[in-house]
């Protein structure tokens, strides 16, 4: 058994697979297929973290908070990659630009700066989703009895 599996309760492919459940929303949103605030968007926002919690409740890893936080971090990296790959499609001709005193900066420099900030923001967002979901998972691990097949760690 690898160290991540011992500590987090899941192998890396499973952790990545769980994080990937949240990627369709990134793609559909950036392509303009789903809109913020819609019911469908809400499903794409909340179902993946619910699946993360369900997996933790089923498997009962030793450190449920760390497990879900890592899933959120992986999701953040995937979120950043998705936004970077779909940048041109998401913004089209209306590429964002810096304002104020930085408005006269070279457009390539502006784009680099904005893409960098967007990537960092995505990783932070994914990690915060993991932290919030992990906290809820810990609480539920304490409240919900472990299934018979689980090892009852959390």
From TrEMBL:
Keywords tagged on the record: Membrane, Transmembrane, Transmembrane helix
Transmembrane domains' residue ranges: 38-58, 65-86, 117-141
Protein's name according to its UniProt entry: Uncharacterized protein
